[in-house]
Amino acid sequence: MTHILSVSVLNKPGVLTRVAGLFSRRNFNIESLNVGKTENPEISRMTIVVRGDQKVLEQVTKQLHKLINVLKITELDKNAIVERDLILIRVKCTRKQRSEIIQIADTFRAQIVDVAPDSLMIEATGTEDKLEALTELLRDFGIAEFVRTGRVALSRGQAIK
Amino acid sequence: MPKLNGGEIIVESLKQENVDVIFGYPGGAVINLYDALYNSGLKHYLGRHEQGVVHAADGYARSSGKVGVCIATSGPGGTNMVTGLANAFMDSVPLVAFTGQVSTSMLGKDSFQEADITGISLPITKHNFLVTDVEELAKTIKEAFFIAKTGRPGPVLIDLAKDVTQKEAEFNYPSKINLPGYRPSFEGHRLQVNKAAKAINEAKRPLLYVGGGAIISGAEKEIKELVERAKIPITTTLMALGIYPEDRELALEMLGMHGTQYANRATLETDLVIAIGARFDDRVTGKLDEFIAQADIIQIDIDPAEIGKNLDVEIPIVGDVKDVLQEILPFIEEKENGEWQDRIRELKEKYPLRYNDDDDSEVIKPQYLMEEIDKYTNGNSTIVTEVGQHQMWAAQYHKYKKPRQFISSGGLGTMGFGLPAAIGAQIGQPDEQIILIAGDGSIQMNIQELGTIQTYNVPVKIIIFNNKYLGMVRQWQEMFFEKRYSSTKIPAPDFVKMGEAYGIWSKRVEKKSELSGAIREAMELKGPAILDVHIPEEENVYPMVPAGAGLKDMIGG
Ligand SMILES: Cc1ncc(C[n+]2csc(CCOP(=O)(O)OP(=O)(O)O)c2C)c(N)n1
Ligand SMILES: [Mg+2]
């Protein structure tokens, strides 16, 4: 089972290493980890997707709390959040295939961000499922390379303090 | 306000923290700090190796209850400290370790004697800091001490870029701490406290299982009260020997792999375990799903992450052990627990610690040796140990009466801890007699610290349990590897000559009839002393629960 944790941390040097190191040292499975600035310049927010049962989640949370620069940890309720992932994919394509790929991109509300003689680059955002479906469809043309940001998420309605 | 340089700021900050003793070893990256220490009035003990320096600070902290302070230079100085930091981290010992670092402008360039010590020490410190701005220095030291000694204590490392120790700033020791992400809780939750008291009052066969957290918290009075009011037998981990006097009726002494039969058997019969500042370590529990499976558990610990880490507990209470016990005690009823007390008495009579000894033989059994030391000192000395069989005999065959009377590397099991830790312990408890129980193997790991003993005439008494083996490993090879003694026979120097080379009174003892006289001689001497006591090569520690077995599957004893 996966859990999404929203972790606010003080922007001190090494804070990412501390969090990432904790996961590997304690043998916790991390699916993705994302860090970004927040409305407060002194605080960053990490969105961490962990795999494990309730017991593992409890240990993860308690161990994270022991890190001096961790301020707050919230497990996000998957039904009450907006979550997004961003992908950039470079797809191989011949001139003939171009329009077909552009059509697929349109269906997913994705953008074409670069065009080369033998490839296209597509940018898409959305949930994990959506991005996986898109990747699957494009696989037939040959994916030259892709990169994903990993999930970020926020609760709906009220802000996380 | 006059400006001070970084080195002077550190000295003044240490004084603000009431530090009067420092253990350290100089080098280029900390030369400004050492300049400030010169004539500072702070007592600096020069070790012989940075590992020894940290262990000494650790022994000092364990014996005095204060924060241990140590210093090393950059690069190899810092990396030499690593084992000492990990050791202190595992046993929750409060330390503040300063390391030198290359100058800010040289950072990250593989400069001479540069090592990323904050990176290296990250998983083995409670927290660490790299200081690159002299304006941040005093504040960082304040935070480091606060973090080291509050909550669940631990080592904190401060890495000092060299220019920081040179540059000047106004010295302003902050009076307040601003660490929004660090808030240890001390008081137990009311509801949980009530539940715990009720469970204790209702239990028929309650058992206290007490760990090092109780010593750190200073909860001996509360524990004594609980034991005696509700007549609850008490067993302790290696880290808590002496929290309750071991010569009393309800004391079951140590449990676990080399625990007493009666303690381990009590865990099989109890209906309620009250775990206090203990973390269900595998050396205690044996096979985890068999450990006190029949009983409910109350667990009191200041570290929320310890609760439910290894075992699910029915009544968890997060808080400082002493505070929580003070909250619980008013609700605890006076009780006799007659049947259970009888059963405990019976277990103690039926399954005492025992070993074979021949009165007519001149062979000195290690257990006998330990009993003789206990007898001579009336059980009043502080015992520091190395790691191995001798450590277990020291735990088993000596009755500990008070907290901080037994100092040993528990969580990490660090050979080489004992000698430097004994030095630190003596400095931390100048009025106590410190006795180091050493193995012939372990003592060779930081033997250079005999030099520190010589320099400062530290009056520790060193008793080497010389079995000419890495005995604990040899025991496993005997029991589980058909006596294939692979690399466990270990040669040693002539310890008497070695001691004498360091100007320490030293004597070899090979006959039982000479033992008590030699102990007296060593103890009555004013300064340090070494007794190299030859014991049988193949004596084993019993009882023993093989690794991974349940406590009911104890062997021997
Ligand atoms: C630094 C370190 N290396 C290796 C070990 C593994 N080890 C545990 S006990 C032991 C033997 C200790 O020998 P000695 O000090 O002579 O004590 P004895 O068991 O013989 O009493 C060894 C090698 C350890 N605990 N620490
Ligand atoms: Mg030995």
UniProtKB/TrEMBL annotation, chain A:
CDD domains cross-referenced by the UniProt entry: ACT_AHAS
A GO biological process held by the record: L-valine biosynthetic process
Keyword Acyltransferase: no
Primary enzyme class: transferase
Pathway participation: Amino-acid biosynthesis; L-isoleucine biosynthesis; L-isoleucine from 2-oxobutanoate: step 1/4; Amino-acid biosynthesis; L-valine biosynthesis; L-valine from pyruvate: step 1/4
PROSITE patterns, A to Z: ACT
GO molecular function, one term: acetolactate synthase activity
Catalytically driven reaction(s): 2 pyruvate + H(+) = (2S)-2-acetolactate + CO2
Keywords for the protein's UniProt record, in alphabetical order: Amino-acid biosynthesis, Branched-chain amino acid biosynthesis, Transferase
Known role: Catalyzes the conversion of 2 pyruvate molecules into acetolactate in the first common step of the biosynthetic pathway of the branched-amino acids such as leucine, isoleucine, and valine.
Protein's UniProt name: Acetolactate synthase small subunit
TrEMBL record, chain B:
Thiamine pyrophosphate enzyme N-terminal TPP-binding domain span: 5-118
Catalytic activity: 2 pyruvate + H(+) = (2S)-2-acetolactate + CO2
Matching InterPro entries: Acetolactate_synth_lsu (IPR012846), AHAS_TPP (IPR039368), DHS-like_NAD/FAD-binding_dom (IPR029035), THDP-binding (IPR029061), Thiamin_PyroP_enz_cen_dom (IPR012000), Thiamin_PyroP_enz_TPP-bd_dom (IPR012001), TPP-bd_CS (IPR000399), TPP_enz (IPR045229)
E.C. designation(s): 2.2.1.6
Cofactor: record remark: Binds 1 Mg(2+) ion per subunit.
Involved pathway(s): Amino-acid biosynthesis; L-valine biosynthesis; L-valine from pyruvate: step 1/4; Amino-acid biosynthesis; L-isoleucine biosynthesis; L-isoleucine from 2-oxobutanoate: step 1/4
Residue stretches making up the Thiamine pyrophosphate enzyme central domain: 193-328
GO cellular-component term (any): acetolactate synthase complex
Domain Thiamine pyrophosphate enzyme TPP-binding: 387-533
One GO term of the biological process aspect: L-valine biosynthetic process
Protein name in the entry: Acetolactate synthase
Pfam families documented for this protein: TPP_enzyme_C, TPP_enzyme_M, TPP_enzyme_N
Annotated organism of origin: Halanaerobium congolense
Cofactor section: Mg(2+); thiamine diphosphate
Molecular function terms from GO: acetolactate synthase activity; flavin adenine dinucleotide binding; magnesium ion binding; thiamine pyrophosphate binding
Organism domain of life: Bacteria
Stated family: Belongs to the TPP enzyme family.
